[in-house]
Amino acid sequence: AVRGHPKSQGISLSSNWACGRRGAEGR
Amino acid sequence: VLGGVSAPEGKWPWQVSVHYAGFHVCGGSILNEYWVLSAAHCFDRDKNVKAYDVYVGLKNLKVAGNDTQWFEVNQVILHPTYQVNHPIGGDVALVQLKSRIVFSESVLPICLPPPEVNLTGGVKCWATGWGLVSQRGATSDELQEAQLPLIPVPLCQILYGHRSYVLPNMLCAGDIWNRKTVCEGDSGGPLVCEFNRSWLQIGIVSWGRGCAYPLFPGVYARVPYFASWIYHNIKTTPLPVEPMPSLCPALGATLTVLVAMLAGPPVL
Predict the structure, then answer these.
(1) CB burial readout B63-101, b (16+ within 10 A) else e
(2) Which residues of A touch B (CB under 8 A)?
């Protein structure tokens, strides 16, 4: 995750994008 | 969704619409570039996956936005316990797309919950979908959202009249007092909850006794129970073979030759 957001809490199946985030938070 | 409201643009970027023969039939959620999570009962009517399409980046079913993408289905994996111990038990489907989703501000994956996720303590959960919005069968082209409290399984079993109706690998959610619940056409869609600013999918819309009776809440496949199976299948199933762009010129050359041959005889 970028822009200071912590890593997603769940299990991510996508390597390049944070899961469970909205909009720019997901990048 | 009964009792819901239209969802703002981009609020649920993992929501997908599963179409069958050109019509919306079910919801689903994006897990990664190639995989969508949905309900098994959305796919058991026909073994021909060619009849299914998946749309992402959609808010209105009749209006494609800048981020809307359309996909054909490569394969569908149904959970091995689907309809084994319960008429709609194991209602989980993994849908592999033929080509990859391009993520954007409006198209993003949802997280799977860890199997031990704690669903007590008043977590706030939401259901979304393009299903019926009234008991009379009214539909909405706009994606609907509703915040739904989780209902403990023992209470849900009492409401449904017998323990065997609601299995431990299911969960129930619905706003009994405000008559908010999911309905036909929402199947396969996600029930998501926010944990520390991350959204985790804890349910897949599965079944219920109608939609108009508040004392029969919506029943969902309990995603934490199926998370290991989902993870294992996605990690071990090969990705589809996509046509390589470099083959296109060769195809063009072949067509050129064929056209030239067909055009030749009349000249002779």
Answers:
(1) eeeebbbebebbebbbbebbeeebebbbbbbbbbbbeeb
(2) 5-6, 8-17, 19-24, 26
